[in-house]
Each structure stands twice: as C-alpha cells, then as structure tokens.
Amino acid sequence: MAGIALRRLLGALPVLLIVSLITFALLRLIPGDPSSVIGGPSATADQLAQIRRNLGLDEPLPMQLVHWYAGLLQGNLGRSLLMGQGVVEVTFERLPVTLGLSLYALVITLVAGLASGIVAALRQNTWVDQLAMMVAMLGISVPNFFLGLLGIIFFAVKLGWLPTGGYVPFSQDPWEWFRTTTMPAVSLAMLQMGLLARITRSTMLEVLRQDYIRTARAKGLPGRQVVVKHALANALIPITTVIGIIVSLLISGSVVTETLFSIPGMGQLLTQAVLNRDYPMVQGGLLLTTVFLVLVNIMVDICYAFLDPRVRYDGK
Amino acid sequence: MPAGAPLEDELEVPERRQSPLRMTVVRLFRHQLFLSGLVLFGLIAVVGVLAPLLTDINPNKLGMRTRFQAPDAAFLFGTDNFGRSLWSRTVWGAQLSMMIGLSVVLLNAVFGTLIGALAGYFPRLDNVLMRVNDALMAFPAILLAIAITAVLGPSIVNAILALAIVYIPRTARIVRASVIVLREMEYVQAAIAAGAGHWRILRRHILPNAMAPLIVQLSFLFAYAVLSEATLSFLGLGAVPPTPTWGNIMAEGRQYMVEAPWIITIPGIALMITVMGLNLLGDGLRDVLDPRLRIQQ
Prior knowledge:
The complex is a heterodimer.
Chain A: H1 2-28, H2 34-39, H3 45-55, H4 61-73, H5 87-122, H6 127-141, H7 144-158, H8 174-208, H9 211-218, H10 223-240, H11 242-260, H12 266-275, H13 279-307, H14 309-314
Helix pairs in contact in A: 1-13, 5-6, 5-8, 5-11, 6-8, 7-8, 7-11, 8-10, 8-11, 9-10, 11-12, 11-13, 12-13
Chain B: H1 5-11, H2 20-30, H3 32-49, H4 51-54, H5 86-121, H6 123-138, H7 141-152, H8 156-183, H9 186-193, H10 198-206, H11 211-234, H12 246-253, H13 262-289, H14 291-294
C-alpha cells in the first residue's frame, strides 16, 4: 500500500510542477501593467514602483520564477494586498469552513446519490426509476445559486425555519452550524447528487447483467444478499473513482454558495480577492486549492487500489 | 428511457439500404429524451435568434415610473428595480447565452480536436501535451475560470476565453482517447501501409470515426458553458452590468428577491430550461451515437 502511495505522489509531481507554473504565469498575463491596475488611475509613479516592488514584478522574469519556487518551498505565497496577512495563513484560516461545508454536502451527495441510483437500477423502467432520474436531471440542470435563492425565499423568508445566511463555527455551537449550513450544503450537493445517481444507476445495471449475478440468483441466494454482497460491492469500485471529481465540483460550487449565503470560507475569500484585484491572494488561493484536490485524488486512487486487487497486482 | 425502443430498431429489417446518417437521424427522432431536449433547447435558441423581433423595448431602457411591476399584460415578465422590461432583458439574455455557449463549443471543437488528435496520433507529443492537459484539469473548473477573468478583466469575450481554456483540455482528452484506439485499427494500418500521409490519415480515416463521442461531449459542454457563464455573471465576473445576461439579471434582482421574486425566478427558469434541454439532448445523442452504450437499453 505504501508503494502505491509513493508512486502516486511521485506521479503527481509533474502535474503539480505545471500547475504551479501556470499559476505563476497568471499574474504575468495581466494585460498592460498590473501595478496600474492595482493602484488605480490616481496612483503616482512612486506608488506604482512600490506596488511593483512588493509583488516582485520589478525583477527580470527568471529571477521572479526563482523567487516564486523558493517561496513555495518555504510555504510562502506572498501577502494578501487586501488583508495584509500572508496568503497561506489566510487560506488556512478559511479552509476549514469550506471543508466542513463540502464534507456535509459530500455526505448528502453520497447518501442521496447512491440510494436513488441503486433503487432506480433495481426498479429499472418503473415509475420509481423515472422519478429518480427526473430528480437527478433536475439536479444537474438547476444552477446551485438559483436553488440557493429559491431556498432562501422559501425556507428562510416565507417559513422562517432557517437563517438567510451567515455562519456559526461548529466548535462554537454545533446546532447553529447545522442550521446555517444545511441550506447551503443541500443546494451545493444537488448537482453532484444528480451525477452520482446517474452513474450509480448505469454501473449497477451493468453489474446486474453479469453472469455471476445470474449464478448467485440461480443457486438460490436471497435477493437482498445478491444485491448487497454481489452487485453493490462490485458496482462501488468504479464509482469510487468519481469521488475525486465530485470533491472538485463541490469546491468549485462552494465559491458561489459561500458568496450567496455569506459563509466566510475559501470561496468567498477568492471572490472577494478577485473583485478587489488582490492578485497574490487569487494566485495563492488557486494554487493551494488545486494542490489540495490533487492530494484528494491520490487518496481516492489509494482507496481504489485497496478495494480492487486487480489494480494492486498490475502495479499500475 | 424509452423502454425497448432502440431494440425495435435493431429488429426492424430495412427494406432498402439506408445511409448511416439517415438511420442515425431516424433513431434520434424516435428517442423521447432527445426530442424533449430538442424542444426545450430549441425554444431558447429560437427566442435568442429572434430576439430583435420578439421585443422592441431596449433591454437597458430605464423607467422610473414602472419599477417593480409584477408580470402583467403591459410587462409580460414584469420589470426590475430600474423599471427595465424583464421580457426584453430575458430575451436578449437568451441571445447572449446562445452566443457564449456556441463560441465556447466552437473553440473546443477546433482546439480540443486539434490537441487531442495530435496527442493521440503522435506518441512523441502525447506526453508533453497530456501533462499540460492534466495540470489544467487539476484546477477546479469554476475557480480557474474565475482566476482567468480576474486577470483579463470582466467582459463577455474574456468569459468565453476563460471557459474555453477551462474546458478545452477535457475535450482534448476525449478526442485523444478515440484517436488512440482508432490509430491501431487495421484499416488505419492498411492506409499507412498504402502510403497515405499523416494528415490524410487523420482527416479521412481517424477523425470522422472519432466524431460521435466528440459531439456528445460538445452538447454537454454547451450546457456547462451556459451554466458557468451565468455563474461568473452572477458573481460579477462576467459581462459588465447592465449587459442583460441571465446571471447579471439575477445578481441585480438578488437584493429584491422577497418583494420582487420574479426578477430572479424568470431568468433562473430560462437558464434551467436551457441547461436541461442540452443535458437531455446530450443523453439522447449518447444513447444513439455511442454503440457501446446502446446495448444497455
């Protein structure tokens, strides 16, 4: 297992290297002079030079690149222009909020997506199947911010069951955390839930057609045992690989959800940073989030190898 | 899923030999999901194309005396906080969404195919191209699009560029997968043995057979592009207000969503219809065009 983990980590190195290069290039792609964009039209020549010096843009490009990687190795991604704090520190302050929300949404996604996909496959072409697939289709078609807005109007304003927005940390008050994050998590989970339900259904249908399922039924095993032990266990293996994509989509989606519900996580931080032209923050936040996702994918791969012995023996 | 419909197709003995294209079209038009998708998406597309005929009110015309009108006979979809006609804004929004979606799809069709074909056909290029591809795909899609628009500045063209950069690697990967399989096919080997050049082999023998998964991908991509652009606009990172994109209308209506819920509901529903139509269209295309999945019906 350790061998697989090591191989995956090494294999991810080129990707991480290019990811960091792209992130580095991003700030240099700003048309014209970034310092005048940041400083605004009223900035004096001195102020512009100061901004350039702070961002390290006054050096020749190769030196900038050296400094960028030297900084990365020391865990230093520069300072946020807006908040004055280090980008890494701000990120680690905000990340737990986004992770908590995403984890909540992930649980909803897995429970609802797997359940509806399995039921749809077992009751193929019945009204249960059609209903589940219609809900899944709605899930992948309704933008999460629209769903969030409708949720606010209905559950927060009309019924008054949940707050319209805001956030209370779990450590402070678990029940309030639950109340403030339920609507965001549900609206965030809908897309992934729809995707997972569709994938689960088609994978289950495929597995249910296999000879070993017929054999299991033929030798008189109870239906439930065939479904759980033979079909589901085998269907879950390919489904595991989708989890990396689901987490990536959750993190992407949280940008909008957090802005909509005023939740102080990474998504809100990055939107604010973009709107305020806080380039080091945008750059650093993007890089750290992506590195995090690459690590998630490596973990998914390891789980996959753990679940499917064929992958382990291939040494792939 | 239309129960057993494609199976009937398989059993039907054609009276005379039909062209594959014709058969595909016939199958598509018997596919319920494809048809419902076509109707939904077609509705929005037609509205977008006919926008100048459907409304003669300028979508940005302010009307201080007509603010917050609920939908009625005078204002079909009501008015917003500046008294602008939401019918006009939504209709023009449809046109913008269609233009943006189509642009992203075209850019993907050209560059995704090019990169995918080169990587799949020339093993030497494969490694380099796919590493860059993997890196671009490692970024969360919306986040990368946001970062690119942050750098380029908010505008419709920049949103199109950002979304193209985000999605081209995904399209390239799909084209590459087909090309790699096709390259090893005997008929391609035969063409190589017969002395056909690389360009001819790619254009005549490989790419036409790689079209099916590409078309399916592009129809889903259209949906993502429309959805992502609306998201960017909603966050204030897409088209600059007062441009009537659906995302912009919803962003502006957000403050008044309790008193005037129609401002967000109408563009929201239009967006939903578009995306659902395209998803259904993509599902139908995949069922019909991708023979590997056809057996599952």
